[in-house]
Write a structure and sequence with these properties.
about 250 residues, mainly alpha, Rossmann fold, 3-stranded parallel beta sheet, 9 helices, 5 strands
Length: about 250
């Protein structure tokens, strides 16, 4: 199972970010896969990214959609996928590709971690009006469960799978349920979405604002129908476990 990658780079300093992402996420993955095949590994499970499908959706993404990566990270992941399929054809090693959406759990990096920290601190978040978008998330325990299924199930070989929790949430709803899980007061301001977008563009944070305001849903029916996989836990339980583990880790 290969999950290592260059990701969640908040302040990119590389003159050519795509080249750096390719060095780690593409070349590193292909090199490891070749070594695995030479060592007799029978199945290689690769954690790619839903970003290979795109960064927003008017309808749930499916495995059969034409790839549309928009960021350097997602481009490097797609190129790694293509390299893995070539190795599979050359060597006979089974390849399984999993494209998870945003994963949440204790001490999660990226937007989910920053949102959790803001909720814990009681920060006023200008996201109270972001109620009409829908995003698919994936609890860490559900991720480990679907990975285990991809490792063991005979029908997983040679397939791409999308996975997600059983319930999609708006950003505002995610924050409300996160606050309940952390038993923290939630302070949200109902700033109109168009103002958030304008502010993001003016401050050079357009990508961050889009990830908070746009929809990104995935269709998990292939994993359900082919592998019999369903999320192990629901969103509220996933957030409760996230909160429990995060608070435990902060205890001296």
């Amino acid at each position: 199972v290969h999950a290592a990658a260059r990701a969640h780079v908040l302040r990119e300093t590389a003159p050519d970010p795509l080249q750096v992402f390719r060095a780690v996420n593409t070349l590193g993955t292909i090199t490891l896969a070749r070594q695995a095949a030479e060592s007799g590994v029978r199945r290689f499970v690769f954690l790619s990214s839903i970003g290979v499908n795109g960064d927003r959706s008017d309808r749930p993404f499916a495995e059969s959609d034409e790839p549309n990566p928009r960021e350097a990270y997602a481009i490097s992941k797609l190129e790694a996928e293509n390299g893995l399929w070539a190795i599979a054809r050359e060597t006979g090693m089974q390849v399984v590709i999993l494209r998870p959406p945003l994963v949440y759990g204790a001490n999660a990096p990226g937007n989910i971690g920053r949102l959790a920290a803001a909720v814990l601190k009681g920060t006023r978040l200008p996201l109270g009006a972001v109620t009409s978008n829908r995003r698919t998330f994936l609890a860490l325990d559900n991720l480990t469960d679907v990975v285990a299924t991809c490792v063991a199930h005979p029908a997983a070989a040679g397939q791409v799978f999308l996975a997600g929790d059983s319930e999609d949430l708006s950003t505002a709803d995610l924050l409300r349920r996160m606050a309940l899980a952390f038993e923290a007061p939630l302070r949200m301001l109902p700033v109109p979405v168009w103002i958030l977008r304008a502010g993001g563009a003016a401050l050079g944070r357009r990508t961050t604002v889009r990830s908070l305001c746009d929809s990104l849903q995935v269709d998990t029916s292939k994993a359900r129908d082919l592998l019999g996989w369903r999320p192990l836990i629901g969103v509220d339980e996933g957030l409760r476990r996230m909160a429990q583990r995060s608070l435990r880790d902060q205890t001296p």
